[in-house]
Request: fold
Amino acid sequence: MASTYLHFKSFDILGLFRMITGQPLNMINSYWPIFLLSLTGNGIKNGLFIYIFRQNFRNMPKEIEEAAYVDGAGHLRIFGGIMVPNAVATVVTVMLFSFVWTYNDNVVSGMLTGSSHLLSVQYLYIADLTNLILKDWSVGDALSYNPIYMMCLKSAGVLLVILPPVLLYLVMQRFFVESVERSGLVG
Reply:
């Protein structure tokens, strides 16, 4: 975690930011580190991502690669023209997994954004709000406390927490199923 923090504290791609602005870019206390980690498939589970890519490329027929060699294509053209287009479903699956695991990770996300006000932990604040309302109502009129209203508040918080991953999965379901089928993952 310390190396990830330091990389985003002085973020510089090939020295471009230092050349343009004179100093590296500080991405801490923003949501950009979360987006970059999700987009590139880095983080806690990157060993699984490597395995998914390995299985995908291993299950591709060798005949396609051999036919491209016969046609005169080099290694880069085969990779860019044949392997990458056939791995789109795997790339989408890895990005989906990475987003969900980064979305649910409070420690690294809180460290990189500088706050714990991420959507995935907002249900805790809704529970605190519910307790605050309950405490205020218990001081006043005891008849105005409505447990059904309190349960609705908690249910709304849970819905807000699970809605982004569910929507993302619904949009990317075709790629996800195709990748799992192609890579041979079971369980």
The mean pLDDT is 77.
